[in-house]
Amino acid sequence: MALTLATDDTGGPEIFASVQGEGPSAGMPVAFLRLSRCNLACVWCDTAYTWHFEGDDRPHRNGRTFDRKANQVTLDKRDVAERIAALGQKRLVITGGEPLLQAPALAKLLDLLPDIGVEIETNGTTKAPPHLDVRIDQFNVSPKLSHSGNPAELALIQERLDAYATDPRAFFKFVVASEDDVNEAAAIVRRHTIPPGRVFLMPEGTDSATLRAREEWLVPLCLDHGFRLSDRLHIHLFGDTRGT
Ligand code: SF4
After folding, report:
1. Taking Cα atoms as reference points, which of 156, 90, 113 lies closest to residue 3?
2. Closest ligand 1 atom to the C-alpha of 148?
3. Distance from the CA of 38 to the center of ligand 1, in angstroms?
4. Which residue among 9, 29, 97, 137 is least crowded, i.e. fewest CB within 10 A of its CB?
5. Whose CA is nearest to atom 3 of ligand 1?
6. Pseudo-torsion of CA 151, 55, 43, 128, nearest 10°?
7. Residues of the chain under the 70 pLDDT cut
8. Is residue 34 part of a domain?
9. Among candidates 170, 164, 109, 96, which has minimal Cα distance to 139?
10. Is 123 in the pocket of ligand 1 (CB under 6 A)?
11. How many CB atoms lie within 10 A of CB 225?
């Protein structure tokens, strides 16, 4: 069974070791697997090379589209598992794109990596089927707010958010650029009775100056709501680059 991965700057599959840059596991040493394809189209997406291919006229803020052949690579699950195992990490972060679009192949991949802990980053519109769900230690759910440009009926699937809200493995990470975004996130938290301690506000931004400026006004809002603040360590350390 094959998986469709994103490519790194060399054109190889985007599998690498680093520290997790965001959310509850920030700072942990992990292996990363970045899968290609997404079911949403966020205007500020910083991994548009996973979905915004030539011919796709959905808006993205920099207007750039990507050559699908150069930005996707399909590998057999055994090849992917060997590359992940070779990184020697105890924990795997599966990201994208939207990785749950490839749930059946992911479950088969994880059968080959029985001892690794698994964290998955998802936009929260999809659920993991049971054979994959049993292998997930942590869901980083990032529901997309109106400033993402996605229609709410695509981005905010109420029963999915209800299910993640009751799952203690699920942490919610809202990408915010303005106080209005925080208010929208807080309304979602109330509607789905999400425990505030499992909610992160993370500034939208792909450079350190933007992140720092937004974190300054986010701190008092985190204090008001009881939410947690997420930085984006990888941006400070490596900039907006692939394979980091
Ligand atoms: Fe990008 Fe994530 Fe939005 Fe998909 S859901 S377009 S990967 S930010």
Report:
1. 113
2. 3
3. 6
4. 9
5. 42
6. 60
7. none
8. yes
9. 170
10. yes
11. 17
Do 80 and 110 form a contact (C-beta atoms < 8 A)? no
Structure tokens at 101: 């679009």
- Distance, in Å, from the CA atom of 183 to the CA atom of 181, rounded to the nearest integer, reads 5
Q: CA angle, corner 198, sides to 194 and 201, nearest 5?
A: 100
User: Which amino acid residue places its CA nearest to atom 8 of ligand 1?
Assistant: 45
How many structural domains comprise the chain? 1
- In short, whether 96's Cβ falls inside 6 Å of ligand 1 is yes
Q: Which residues pair with 160 in a beta bridge?
A: none
- Find the CATH number of the domain harbouring 29: 3.20.20
Backbone angles phi, psi at 16, to 5 degrees: -160, 165
**What count of other Cβ atoms lies within 10 Å of the Cβ of residue 10?**
9
Q: Is residue 235 situated within a structural domain?
A: no
pLDDT of residue 119: 98
Distance CA 190, CA 181 (A): 14
Domain that holds residue 106: 2-172
* 237, part of any domain: no
Residue 52 within a domain: yes
- The verdict on the CB of residue 40 being under 6 Å from ligand 1 is yes
pLDDT, tens only, 206-237: 999 999 999 999 999 999 999 999 999 999 99
Nearest partner of 96 among 228, 234, 242, 201, judged by Cα: 242
